[in-house]
Predict the structure.
Amino acid sequence: MRNHIIKFSVLAFIILLNACKTEKPKTKENDFSTTESPYLGQKPPGLIPEPFAPGLVTTLNWEIDGVFTPDLKEFYFIREVGEKEEDKKMEFVVFQYKNNQWQDSVISSRVGQPFISPDGKKMHLGRRYKERTGTGWSEIKKLDTVFMKIPIMRLTTSAKGTYVFDEMSEEGHLRYSRLIDGEREEPRSFGKEINTGKSNAHPFIAPDESYILWDGRRDSGYGNADIYVSFRQKDDSWSKAINLGENINTEASEYGASVTPDGKYLFFNRNVGKVKPTDKYENTDMFWVDAQVIERLRPKQ
């Protein structure tokens, strides 16, 4: 009996030692199949925005710019880490659905605002991008020189390959560049329907190019920065900008809107105030809401 106790004790010690040496990936407590619950196992929201994945994604630090791959098995976003102001830094993070679990890992320090192309083959990071490979993503590459000259914060693409992007400036100016017969055209400016007010930024073009989302500051807005939508009309012009309304926009700043690849949910960032009075910046959380908030604003034609 004594020998059995000694053997059990040694075995337990070995297991404990191995556990200490092995860093387990962070996962949600329960396993979820992507068919039943693809959004990190979260209960889908209704028409009122909710923080996305509290405690898992949304924390007391910054979380911004969340995007899914088309198969909904990878979720990329920017996260702030560090408790003290002098220790805080931004990380590029991914949650991946593997072995019936969502597992997160840090890719690198912040490299730009991520956007996954509708076909899943490119990850755009402002003026730079990565290409999908058999084992993950390529090294970062640069766009053509004409785009490198523009201080782009966010660039998104349609299924046709049209680029829609901003520039880092107080006024804010949104442009587009179409892919015509395989050739990339020179950047062109949107009209006053979109480029009105200040700080127009962080555009998102729908995969079918039927609408554009962006944020900006206008005298008629609810707060510092609001999210707007413009719909493509029958003559290919763009409708007058429509504010997404008081359920989305508040007295704070809402920005960085995008829609999930399946078209079901709108994601955006919202400033929610300082966690500590000594914090240099306000905390920003990621919210999601049913994408019907967009469809309800679409003009009937």
Q: What stands out?
A: Residues 1-35 have pLDDT under 50 and may be disordered. Helices lie at 2-21, 145-148, 292-295. The chain has three helices and 24 strands. The chain has one domain: 24-295.
